[in-house]
Amino acid sequence: MTHAYRVDSEVGRLRTVLLHRPGAELRRLTPRNNDQLLFDGIPWVGRAQQEHDAFAQALRDHDVEVLYLTELLQDTLEYQPARDEAIAGVLDDSRLGDQLRKILEAFLGDLTPEALTQVLVAGLAHEELKTGRGLVYQLMDRHDFVIDPLPNLLFTRDSSVWVGDRVAVTSLAMPARERETALAQLIYRHHPRFENVAPVYEPALEHLEGGDVLLLAPGVLAIGTGERTTPAGVERLARQVFASGLVHTVLAVPIAQDRATMHLDTICTMVDVDKVVMYPAVAYSLTAYTVTSENGDLRVSRARPFLEAAAQAMSIDRLSVIDTGLDPVTAEREQWDDGNNTLAVGPRLAVAYERNVETNARLEAAGIEVIRIEGSELGSGRGGPRCMSCPVLRDPA
Ligand SMILES: NC(=[NH2+])NCCC[C@H](N)C(=O)O
């Protein structure tokens, strides 16, 4: 069956979304590796799964079709070319050496699609490779991974993002996440669901993460540039979306190079066609460079206040900020816990972590219906409802 997927905004009625239910990859996190694997704590895995299931159910209750990344990946790995590509991807690792690479190739080649999916996502620990031997294998620490786990796969918004009827598979900046885009790429290239989808962007040299990309309005993107997306990444995506004719204006939005504000969506998400919820500390100081296409080249304006540049690009009078009016300490705490990272299920209807009590109360006071979900364990990876979802179909807003 052919599907026509398309996303033109952040707030059009959500129809289909791609999620990843966290699993064995989270069980790999220890106090020794959690920093490198970009988690701020050691999640209780069973509870994280319950929280995630409740998130998925809340979406289904609002008539959203939920696709799971591992299910799509497993279907994909039924095809020999996809399997070959997946295996070649993990073997292309400078740490392995020829002997271990050969052993690993044989091991992976024998796995069923289900087991291969599991290994691609959860990684492979030293002791799990029973056939392991040779210099590299013997000199590895028993805590080392032959294949690294991907605990951040949970944040499906970062590895791919839809622009109109095309998908951008991004280039993740952190080494711990690089392999995630290879999995996204496999799915979009080989899964029959996406047969007719032409990518508008594929992993490139420049760093670009989906959490930085906001579809402000049809034809208008805001792209954060900070810890994850570089100005060169913005430039690359801008060229591609301009060339495709899908977008006429890109706003490049510099954000602080900090873990707390790693992506634009940690400080700003949309809850209506003309309303954003924004971290108060930056709402009125954020700036943007307007990028447009001129005779095949990029034209860049001077920096202007973000809200002004956005409203102009979106052809609206005003992009209003919901006044979360919090005292600075509460605001900072709730920003850290992804209070600003909402997922709109439709205009004025958004999923948010329940723990951000004050931000949610202010959203409601402003007329936004809030679907509250628990996230005490999910949040230890520093991501909220928007980070954990890649919309693939929304109605026009
Ligand atoms: N779109 C987002 N804000 N994603 C959050 C990703 C969190 C993840 N632990 C990372 O450090 O990369």
TrEMBL record:
Pathway: Amino-acid degradation; L-arginine degradation via ADI pathway; carbamoyl phosphate from L-arginine: step 1/2. Its main location: cytoplasm. It catalyses: L-arginine + H2O = L-citrulline + NH4(+). Keywords: Arginine metabolism, Cytoplasm, Hydrolase. Pfam families: ADI (PF02274). It is found in: Cytoplasm. InterPro entries: Arg_deiminase. GO terms for molecular function: arginine deiminase activity. Its EC number is 3.5.3.6. The active site is at C387. It comes from the Bacteria. Belongs to the arginine deiminase family. PANTHER family: ARGININE DEIMINASE. This is Arginine deiminase. The gene is arcA.
